[in-house]
Amino acid sequence: MSEFADQVTVAAYRVGWTLVRRLPERAAYTAFDGLAALVHRRGGKGVDRMRSNYALVRPELDAEELEALVGDGLRSYFRYWCDAFRLSRYSAQDLEPRVRLVGDAGAREVLKEGRSLVVFLGHMGNWDLCGAWATTYFAPVTTVAERLKPEELFEEFLTFRESLGMRIIPLTGGENPFGTLVRAARQGAFIPLLADRDLTSRGVTVQLLGHNARVAAGPAAVALASGAALYALGVRYERRADGSGFDVVATFSDLIEPGEGTRTDQIQDMTQRCMDHLGEQIHAYTEDWHMMQRVFEKDLDTAGGR
Known about the structure:
Structural class: alpha/beta
Order of helices and strands: HHHHHEHEHEHEHEEEHEEHH
Radius of gyration: 19 Å
Oligomer: single chain
Distance between the termini: 30 Å
Strand content: 15-25%
Largest sheet: 5 strands, mixed
């Protein structure tokens, strides 16, 4: 049964890639809005977790406002998937107007000087679209991807992302990702890393909008080990002025430099400052934070540990 379910999952994604990219843009996104509404009505563990996470970062909302925000969050999440299925049809010229950077002067100067750039990302907006755009208009991307199940699905996503010009390092089951990233960072690479959730059990505890959250220490650790510059980046959707759809806005933090103390102290401090920037973005654009997993320590403790 497990093997059959895996085959169905892979087949469903292949159908999505084939059909969705052939639809007219408005029709495709309207269909995915409908899927988001259906999932919202049906509920489930992912929807419940999104609601719980949103309630923590937006405590000022009443129950009706929170539920409306969850609906907006699911539409944004499904927009991400519609984007992903359609990315392969876009040329470099198609991609160019779809991403707007804010506060990027310092990061561009780092790259211009031939230095490496590490970016602390959250599960916000569309980081795949940003990666595809960046490889052409900013700098080629080297990053790490969680190994999905089934394996064939992971290979599909790996091939897809590499076809966009990204270099993808599997989190598990391959070469040591930390050592590989440090070597890449010493050679002038641009390394954006999803880090607002700890996938390794070696993360650090930080404050996210007043709550303890367990996040990845990798971006700060790679920057310290390699001498690369570290920034945090919040990514969100923005409706086009003509109302025809959405593009992406990516907002850089200030440069996050090492402070005093031990290496452990520096990683803790740098990661907290990354989350401070990301927290501002999450609070302002909560619907674009696609966090449907446990990230807050109170939930991790309830689940039986980290």
